[in-house]
């Protein structure tokens, strides 16, 4: 039987970024990895998809930023569930209104693959995203120990093309290098940036997603 309360574990490569006693990266580190600052969250509605203990929202509130909505399918305790902007929900069925989100962030939740499950998650996310908004995904699988760096790079570039084909009507997909990358392990230094395309064509016809 699946244990939905099991908390994420870190690879050895990630441990250097984690504060003692934490089981997920801090909100501060998550933003730095994705090339963002706290000012990028101000006056915006931001989703932290797979928020776990809602560290991003809690750290944001200390800085006067109250627009972070935490979403997770797991139960991380009553104190977390009672937070105003904490929503329990599935990646494939996000309980938010259409066209309501300015920025989507996701850290260590899922690994992008060119398959039907990934497509369903991305299309559901696109429903609640505003035109031109971005989804930044720090993938759950950050490296492949059996692959050399050149093989990882080729793998990532091929996946980028496959993902673009998978959701070509909905997103522009790009593999981005983290500004705090150390260059020690190719895939651990990269994240995915997806930009939501307009839901209407220049002629006004609705795109079928």
What does this structure look like?
This protein is of the alpha/beta class and 209 residues long. The protein has one domain: Rossmann fold. 23% of the residues lie in helices and 21% in strands. It is built from five helices and seven strands; from the N terminus they run αβαβαββαβαββ. Strands 3-2-1-4-5-7-6 form a seven-stranded mixed sheet, with helices on both faces. The termini are far apart. Mean pLDDT is 77; it is low at 1-23 and 201-209.
Give the helices and strands, then pairings:
Blueprint: H1 27-33, E1 46-49, H2 55-61, E2 68-72, H3 78-81, E3 86-88, E4 101-107, H4 116-128, E5 129-138, H5 149-166, E6 171-177, E7 190-196
Parallel strand pairs: 1-2, 1-4, 2-3, 4-5
Antiparallel strand pairs: 5-7, 6-7
């Amino acid at each position: 039987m699946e244990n939905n309360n099991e908390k994420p574990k870190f690879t050895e490569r990630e441990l250097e970024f984690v504060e003692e006693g934490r089981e997920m990266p801090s909100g501060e580190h998550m933003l730095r990895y994705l090339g963002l600052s706290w000012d990028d969250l101000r006056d915006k509605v931001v989703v932290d998809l797979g928020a776990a203990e809602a560290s991003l929202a809690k750290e944001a509130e200390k800085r006067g930023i109250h627009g972070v909505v935490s979403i997770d399918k797991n139960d991380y305790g009553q104190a977390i569930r009672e937070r105003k902007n904490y929503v329990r929900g599935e990646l494939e069925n996000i309980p938010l209104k259409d066209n309501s989100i300015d920025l989507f962030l996701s850290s260590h939740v899922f690994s992008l693959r060119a398959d039907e499950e990934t497509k369903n998650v991305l299309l559901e996310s696109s429903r609640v995203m505003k035109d031109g908004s971005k989804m930044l995904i720090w993938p759950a699988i950050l490296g492949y120990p059996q692959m050399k760096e050149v093989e990882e790079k080729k793998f990532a570039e091929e996946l980028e093309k496959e993902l673009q084909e998978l959701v070509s009507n909905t997103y522009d997909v790009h593999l981005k290098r983290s500004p705090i990358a150390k260059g020690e392990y190719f895939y651990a230094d990269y994240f995915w940036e997806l930009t939501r395309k307009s839901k209407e064509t220049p002629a006004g016809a609705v795109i079928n997603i």
